[in-house]
Structures are given as structure tokens and as C-alpha cells.
Amino acid sequence: MIESPPPYAGLMPDLVLDALDSTGLRADGRLLALNSYENRVYLTGVTDAAAVVVKFYRPGRWRDEAILEEHAYTADLAEREIPVVAPLVLKGATLHAHAGFRFAVFPKQGGRPPEFDRPGTLERMGRFLARIHAVGMREPFVHRPALDVETFGIQARDFLRAGNWLPADLAPAWTGVVDHALDQVAHCYARAGAVRALRLHGDCHAGNVLWSDAGPHFVDFDDCRSGPAVQDLWMLLSGEREQQQAQLNDILTGYGDFAEFDPRELHLVEALRTLRLIHHAAWLARRWGDPAFPVAFPWFNTQQYWQARILELREQIALMDEPPLLA
Description:
The structure is a single chain. The chain has two domains: about 5-105, Phosphorylase Kinase, domain 1 (2-Layer Sandwich); about 120-320, Orthogonal Bundle (Transferase(Phosphotransferase), domain 1). The protein is about 40% helix and about 15% strand. The protein has helices at about 15-20, 65-80, 120-135, 150-160, 170-190, 230-235, 240-255, 270-285, 290-295, 305-320, and strands spanning about 25-35, 40-45, 50-55, 95-100, 100-105, 200, 210, 215-220, 225. The strands form three sheets. The protein has a five-stranded antiparallel β-sheet with strand order 1-2-3-5-4, covered by helices on one side. A two-stranded antiparallel sheet has the order 6-9. Strand 2 (about 40-45) and strand 3 (about 50-55) form a beta hairpin. Helix 3 crosses helix 7 (about 240-255), helix 4 (about 150-160) packs antiparallel against helix 5 and helix 5 (about 170-190) crosses helix 8 (about 270-285).
């Protein structure tokens, strides 16, 4: 079932500025909407202080306890001098409410996209991710979900089937290939065995890393979940197998300085990539009632889109049959 449109239409500039004022910071009227689809995010000027980023959470997505658990995790990382952008504590709280919206305020963090092809960059990324994971191992999430085959794969597949999103002529092919792909994912998990789940960033792609002369800053822990450590590593890999192997070598060289990596998790790299692909299609379908999505993703749900997804999953099935990368 498609979600009802969120009430973001009511999130007018005056409301955003009033929300910031309610935290004790005084907005100076400068306001810039930042690129975000799941939530609504604004760069906002503050009188006699540095600008801040105000994030309004999508209504109904997370319970307060889950958001606060995210905030506590990032605060713990920041206290250990790990470069993450944690929410500000204002009036004794990190999660605020105004006019029916829940929001948090973050310091503005400058930076540029990381250049992973520059020598030393991936090794530094590995060191910081190992430090994040060392903290993530200390205790489990209680209110945030796990990244697993059920939530990212089976539930996503079933949602797309039930909603009749597939064109009639492509539905049988997609159904067959997604079922095959999920069987292969299960085989990958079986080969990996019982790997440790820990608190993760969860969505550690280049867009969620800001690079400065001091190194990386990790932003947007909105998707932090429990899962295997390799989930935060594989999205840094790109190119052909030989390139990915060289990139992984660099990451693990740095990672090993602060944490031990279980090489069995490499059986999960293509499985996790497959789950992300299936989950992403279902995410777009679930959000299609949000007016921002048809504008931002006009190619979704076209004949060409589903043909590409079928081909993509077939390629993933073949990749999951290959030996894993080496630690």
C-alpha cells in the first residue's frame, strides 16, 4: 500500500524559522533547503552564531525512542573524538517538536566529496570506520532494526508484488529473478556463517562523507541499524573486481589498526548489494505519494526502469556465484 502524502506542504519557511527559535537559537532569516528526500533538511542562519542544519523527520518513520537512540550513538562517537556530526543539545534535548513536526539541529559541517582514488584516502576511511565499529560493538541497539534478509529483501519484494507495481508483461520475469536472487542471498549468508552484528552507520556511501584537510566527517546516521561490519565497507568499493580488491586492501589496512575484521563477512558483499537494490525499489514505491518523489525520480516505475532492474538482479545472481573478495 502506498503511503499517504506526508504533511511537508505545511513546512513553510516561517514554520522552519519558528521551530529553530523554539530551541533557544534565534534564526536570522537565512534559509536554504538542502538535498534530502526521506526527511526535510534546511541550512539556517543564526543571529550572532554559526549557521546550523535543521532536520525535520519524516512523520511516522521512526518512533521517538529510535531517533533518540541514533542521537545517543552519534553523541557517544563524538565524545570519543570520532568525526561524526551529532545533533546539538539545546534546552537539554536533541529531539524537539514544533507544530506537529519532530526535528533536530546539527552544526554545519563543511567539506567536499571524498576522492577515493587518492592515495591514503581509503586507508584513512578504514581507520575511522574501525573506530566507529569498536564503539558499535560495545552495546546493541534496542529500538532500531537490523539489516537482514527479511526486512531488506523479503518484505521489500512482497510490498512490490502486492502493490502491482510491475508492468504485466514484466511481472513474471521480475518475480522469477527476485526469488532467485533472494535464494542466492540466503546461500551467501549460509557460507558466511554466524557473523557478529553491531551498531553501524548503515548507509556509508560517499554522499554521507564530507572530506576536509583534517580527513572525513561522517554525516546522516538516519539509517543506522544493526548488521555486519562489512555493510559499512562495501559501499566504498567500485569498478571491476581487481579495482575493488585493491580498494578493499586499502580499507582493511587502515581498519586493522583499530578493530579486527572477520573475513567471512566478505561472502556478504554481493548479497548486501542485492538486498540494497531490492530495498531501494520498494523505498521509491512506498514514498511515491510524497510529491517530491515523482519530480526527483521521474524514471521510476517505467518499462525501462523495471527492465533495468531485472538485468541488474541477473548480474547480481552471477556475482553471488563467484568467490568473494579476499581479506
